[in-house]
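Hey everyone, long-time lurker, first post.

I ran two proteins through the pipeline my lab uses and got sequence/structure pairs for each. Pasting them in order. The first:
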Amino acid sequence: MASLAENQGKTQSLRDKAWAVAAKVVDPEIPVLTLEDLGVLRDVRVADDGAIEVDITPTYVGCPAMGIFTMDLETELAKAGFDNVRVKTVLSPAWTTDWISAKAREKLREYGIAPPEGKASRRALFGDETVTCPRCGSENTEKISEFGSTACKALWKCRDCAEPFDYFKCI
């Protein structure tokens, strides 16, 4: 009979393996980022019945990528040998761009999307933002549209290099 410590060790090992798999699932809208990079992956647990439970938080309520996140998590975990997986959407606390890792911000910039500048705050609601062009590094930019290629991004243009670009809005 396995001891309590041995069972806890096995559970932790399963959890760590499942987390590692879930952490590699990419965002279908921004394929250079993983769910972990975005801060969307909130928790992975081994339930009492042995199921792997994964908590994810959408970048905004109604995000169309959530269905893909769920399907991709279930698929990748099944490939890794986890047959019983439950993915749960967690709305509280609400996701914020503050959860995007520093590594993910750099990946966004390299991909041509301006990462959120600073911390989420009320000033972003009133258009008091300076956004750096991800292509040339200029701060001489202007907002063209509050909405870009997805609802969590705005469309901006650099006045120096004249290139349009998406800005991942501070939320």
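...and the second, right after it:
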Amino acid sequence: MTDDILLRTDSDGVAELTLNMPNRLNALSDAMLAALQAQIDQLATDQTTRAVILRGTGKAFCAGHDLKEMTAGRQAEDGGKAYFADLFNRCASVMTGLQRIPQPVIAEAHGIATAAGCQLVASCDMAIAAHGTKFGVNGVNIGLFCSTPMVALSRNIPRKHAFEMLTTGKFIDTEAAERLGLINRAVPAEDLSAATRELAQTVASKLGAAVKIGKEAFYEQIQMPVDQAYAYAGDVMVQNMLFRDTEEGIAAFLEKRPPEWEQ
């Protein structure tokens, strides 16, 4: 367990991180961003955790940035310029950090995921949502275009749909979120935790070294031209094939027995 605003439990190779500011709809306050960054930094070198679940308490997954803190930041002599620049840099570090740590991260969304909260879902490697969850990048409704959430959103769903969400501020439901690729699937609210846990445990049961090298390669190759991506991915496959545990996994498959992995 970390600070009260961010809870952590660990079992069977799965770390569960719970945003715990229900009275603020789990807003990404300065303290929440700091707590998330601390966990990301720890997970980056964690050799025992193989999957991560990210969820929120109360009525919402996450309602985005803390607007009260942002308003207070305007009181500085520069009108908040330095604070806002630092805030969005810290937020970007958390979002990219989720994709850089070796463990797959699964968002468990419910209620609403708005603005930077929607960005948080989009930044996770996978996402499962409760039926009825609403997703939006609705900053435009208060005169603030969701430019940083746009980065993650536009890398998850088709650009025209992303642009419509950004310019209209309209929310999408779980059916649209699944169809567009923002979430993997939606389940009844009462099944949400079990479904997310099942997915996390399935991931955690795989060879950690293979998933680690594969996750890094996934995000590297997707930014490359196809020929370059194949060359890079081929090198990664060579490295993976040379793992002792991969050799054991292939031998076990051929011999029709469970693998005896060291990692």
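Reply from user beta_strand_b:
Welcome! Quick read of the second one: The mean pLDDT is 96. Residues 6-204 form a domain with the 2-enoyl-CoA Hydratase; Chain A, domain 1 fold (CATH 3.90.226.10).
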